[in-house]
Design goal:
This protein is an alpha+beta fold. It is built from eight helices and 14 strands. It comes from Clostridium rhizosphaerae.
Length: 323
Amino acid sequence: MNEYRNKHIKCFNPSTEDRSLYAKQRIYHYTSPRGLYAILDNSTIRFTDCQFLNDKSEYTHIKKPLIKAFEEIKSDLHNDLETSVMDLLSNNFEQDDIKLEGKSSKQSLQSIKKRYYVFCSSTAQDSLGMWNYYVKGGNYQGYNIGLSISKLLDCFSTIKNPEIDVFYGKVIYKERDQINLLKDLLLKADQDLEDKLSKAKSSEDISLSEQEVIGEVLTFIENYRLFFKDEAFNNEKEYRFVIKLPLEFTPNTSDPISIGFDVKNGVFTPFCVLSISKENTIDSIMLSPMLESELAEQGLKRYLKLKGFSSITIEQSKVPIRY
């Protein structure tokens, strides 16, 4: 996967992205009035721990297209990748990152437990399907904020902690697209392993080659599994940002990341927040259909001025809802 500004910021599916257009591309985060208030009041956006997302099957969804991908390329594989990958693929929400520590002969492998936090947005600017998530008491009570992809990535680029990774891109919904992407990954991994094995000179070389390739496949799946969703959610046209944080993360003053907890539906829900720049990161706010538009717009304008957001335009949804 390609990089944005540094090796810790990675695009999930570069073939679907045109980085030259990032300065013009906008995504839209739909949220409740309370959610919008928190974003503006603190100049932050919130990422929810993936275990606590509304759709609890998201994290495990990738197994379905993965099994089908293996079935379709079984006759083309030189090595039994399927057994190793499926046996090692975990449903555990805590993932182990392995790295070398120490110098020269004193190096040792260290395992760091990490978790994934998700910020959900949409490429759809004014979607009835998305507004429907914010109906309360028979009325629409939601907003969406328009964000510049480029400016948001700039906010991530100020992260200094080398143990933090960021992934971003469009969610894939069509099962055929998911299967094809995984087939490409597995066939390339199989060929890489075949090339390494042809150069191996000992049983130790063979074992290390197998571990390396299987590790790369599992790393891809673990890091990008949250970009695969069931096709039933296709109308959401989701564009995601995922932060991978050490479980024992301790924020410092130089990083724009902090962590906390909220209570949702009686459950203590962990999250992390990213500090954003007030300069053009958010460039628009749209009011949902049926919201008391004139009063809502006047109150929002005054609040934006108070908080120093000087370049945000306010729009009203054009979805034609009578009542």
